[in-house]
Every structure is written in C-alpha cells, then in structure tokens.
Amino acid sequence: MLKLLHHYTIKQWQKINKEYIDKDLQNRIDSRAIIVFLLFTFVLVSLKYFGKSPTFYQLFGNYFQVYPYPGIYSNLYWAFFRVCVYFIIPVMVIKCMFKENIRDYGFRTNRSPRVMLLYVVMFVAVFPLVYIASKDPGFLRTYPFYKHAANTWTELVLWESAYALQFLTLEFFFRGFILFSFSRYIGAYSILLMSVPYTMIHFQKPFPETLGAIIAGMFLGTLALRTRSIFGGVIIHVAVAWSMDITAMFQKGQLQRLF
Question: How many helices (DSSP H) and strands (DSSP E) are in the chain?
Fold first, then answer.
C-alpha cells in the first residue's frame, strides 16, 4: 500500500519537476506570476462577496418572480458567475496578456485508455462513499443546491447542466490556469499551493466532503500535470456531483415523483 502511494505521489511529483520547472524563471521576478496571483486572489474574493444568491437579489430583486420556475434563477446566477470568473476572465488573460493558447493550460483531451481506465476506477471507488454519505442529514440538507431540482424535468435538466458547466470551469481554473501557471516556477509544489484554496471553497459543505477535497485536489492536480489535460478531472467531478444530487433526491423521495 505504501509503495503504491509512493508511486502515485512522490514519483509522479519528481517527474513533474523535471518536466515543468523552467530554471530560467527561478531567479527572477516574473510579471506573469504576479498577474496570476492577483487574479487568483480576486477570483476568490469575488466568489465570497458577489457570487452568491444575496447579490443576485440585490441586483434583480423580484424581477424573475413572474417567470416560470422562479427559484432557479438565483442558482443559475451562482453557476454563471463561476463561469465568468473561473473561465472567461482567465482565458482573456491567457489570450490577450500572455499571448498563449489555452491548450497549454490543460484545455486538451487525453484519450489514453490507461488514463480513462484510471478515472473509471476512481469513480467506482468513490460512488459507494457517496451513497453512504447520502444517508447523512447534513448531506441531505446540502444537496442538491437547487432545492426544487426534482420538481420538473425542465428544472432538473437546467440545473444539472449549469452545475456541470461550472465544474468544467472550476477544473480549468484550479487544475488548469493556476496549476500550469505556477508549475513552471515551483513544479509539483504548485499542486499543494492549488489544493489549499480549492479545499477552502468547500468550507460551507459537509465536513467529510471538505476533507475529501484535500485528497481530490492533490490527486486530480497530479493527474492533470502528468496528462496535460483537465478533462479527466472534469468527467470524474461531474459524474460524482451528479451522483451526489441524484442519490440525495432519491433518499428524500423527490426523484421518484418525476416518474
């Protein structure tokens, strides 16, 4: 067990250091690192103070109450705000300021059967834990975020699509933009750097999930750098998130009402 853990951590991190660290950047102050750090901080602050339902109601009040499914719009705002700060703004920085391609930040696919099998094994290992957690009252209070997701098929599809999209952008921000930006300076230590704020954004979630975010952040970060792709992480993240919502709705008897 210890040998397996060593293989998937220390050995992989050593390979990452050899592959990514640019020795020409180690002894000078680089403006790109400062820009990434400032944007990183801005995104975390904006999520805390502007990316939640209270801001939506301050901006729009009861305007959307006259439309169908009035409860969903604050949740769609939550997802759309994350798409903006996790993806659109970093992509603009990469394209306009760094003059680089987003493919260099993990936005590419890796179709290696070995890699895909690893993600399948990850999901199979995690799903039983999700099902066990779905019986916990704290888990059921948290998921799904949109409490009326199972009212109609339209609401379910809208919410879960928006939910999946924000996971794509979350993976790009943490396991793409941040990770690939700092890996050229500090190699595998960028995984540890990224995992701290990634864990912090889970603080409002159930305690076991927050602990799991530490492991997930480090494992998915290692895998992203080794495969040069975030999309395996996107697949596993969306699959786990959807399974958490579905099991929670099932345990509460909400899902059954759709059939």
Answer: 13, 0
